[in-house]
Amino acid sequence: MGKNLAYKLIESHLVGNAFDGKQPEFGENMALRVDQTLTQDSTGTMVYLQLEAMNVSKVLTELSVAYIDHNMLQSGFENADDHAFIASVAEKYGIVYSKPGNGICHQLHLENFAKPGKLLIGSDSHTPTCGGMGMLAIGAGGLDVAIGMARGVYHLAMPKVIEIKLTGALKPWVTAKDVILKVLQILGVSGGVNAILEYTGEGVKSLSVPQRATITNMGAELGATTSVFPSDINTLDFLTRQGRASDYTALEADSAATYDATHTIDLSELEPMAAKPHSPDAIAMISQLSGIKVDQVAIGSCTNASYADLMTVAKILKGKSVHPNVSLVISPGSSAILKMLAEHGALSDMIGAGARLLEAGCGPCIGMGQSPKSGAVSLRTFNRNFQGRSGTKDAQVYLVSPEVAAVSAITGVITDPRTFGELEEIPAPNTYAKSEHYWVKPLVYNTPQLDTPIQMGPNIKPFPVGEPLPNELTLPISLKTGDKISTDDIMPSHAGLLPFRSNVPRLSLDCFATVDTTFPARATELGRSVIVGGHTYGQGSSREHAALVPLYLGVRAVIAKSFARIHRSNLINAGILPLTFAEETDYDQLKELSTLRLENIYEGLESGRINMEAEVGTSGHLKRIIPLKFEGTEREIEILKAGGGA
Ligand code: MIC
Ligand code: SF4
Predict the structure, then answer these.
(1) Which ligand is nearest to the CA of 106?
(2) What is the pTM of this model?
(3) Does residue 544 contact residue 142 with C-beta atoms inside 8 Å?
(4) Is 69 assigned a catalytic role?
(5) Is 124 close to ligand 1, i.e. is its CB under 6 Å away?
């Protein structure tokens, strides 16, 4: 029986010999050696506050990088103070610091540091982007990344490995974005939870590293632990053009590798697609959407802002005009790409057509500006279209490829690019440009300078710490939500709030703002409470604020039909109990403000079954026992009992 690539990567990072050479069973806790970490600024301040609190004298990874890419509007002192704090911690521990303007963490990491065979954890859910280069690249909560740096270890429950077998080759105007939209159509937004998606088959050979990275990036939208491609001749080609051929190692699955499930996609059968409002798995063919009037087109993000993506956009725009009713905005993935666009004349083609240009960074993807007008149709090359994420609650956001975006920006309506004529191939440059002056690199990675003063602006407040878990809890329900609650719902992110990522008390005023604006006041009044949720509770971002802010507001447990992986870990790290319904229909019995009583919690965590006495019915006087489940490892139980991992 052959090994798949995902397992080979796991096996080469297992710490100790806890499994005696046997493959861990699905769900078993594994300690993995961490080679690299990345952070970005909107989650990074929490990571580095936690690292500082651990009082370590050294970071134990081979390489750790602190990127500034999300909060760059600097409309007050707060963002700039956060940057200064992160820069000072980076200097103290010999961490590489990427200055604002250098670009998006995932694009930069792929260009500069991703290495086949290494394990990367990052405090951002799109960290799997680097899986496009044969790495095990996993998004994690901030505390897990801080622990990864301090102890060099990351704990993960053994996932399933799902094979996505690609055959054939893409037709003109059909792109890597359409491949991942197809995977989302097959598996849905929770289809990858506790699974690694491994891409195999002849079709893989036709995809470049940047195309593979688009696919692994958006695997996050399936809830997948990560996605991975083999490291092959195309990987060597990309690394050579990046001036890093010596970082190459060939890696692939054994020929008789086995998988927990297999899905086959014939690339030649795909056509241009979109994810319709308001979910990345609401897939439709562009041909079915053609003719819908478009108000805004936004091109960029860690999914689709590579050199090839943006050069293609420039070729489409060359000599044309953006439609009078459309605002086209472009944000490059990295400063190196921006430099190349300038060198190759692409910037003047974009400007010539009437595009608006932003600095390299996340920008509109995280609602940092460029919110569309009320009720607008916005086509975005990004990866998430949860309601309100654009900053405009009633905007209709469609996720599309750069090709569909650029062509539609010209016509003013959603347009199938196959009707647009010939597509000019963009060859990869012989050498990708470098922009060395946006980096602050220590002479030797991770060599600490412990006397560096840490710069703490007045907006940086301590993070809340959980309380040890009692064996019994009696709690009122402060909020009952529906399905697919994202971390953007729990703790929204936009230009008005991102400056407060280091200030949990301030953020708490906007907790669940898109769902129920009365929640913060109610939770505060109740003191301690529980949230009841539906399916895929906590999908989307890795932001641990979506756990820390409810913790600050007194939330002690979340009972849901199912959880997204990173958010579930963040709840545990915050000391908040994540429980699921044994019978999903029991969800219907619960209503806001009813009281729930959990008994024998310790025993229940061990056995996986906790009985809850709940007030049900309209008068609230009827009591019922509702069985709940806890599916977690011994280590998670210990963290919960201690009141969190901090
Ligand atoms: C996102 O795309 O939602 C973010 C912003 O990059 C987040 C991180 C954050 O909330 O700061 C993510 O994907 O983890
Ligand atoms: Fe930035 Fe958007 Fe990528 Fe998140 S998804 S890292 S906000 S570009």
Answers:
(1) 2
(2) 0.97
(3) yes
(4) yes
(5) yes
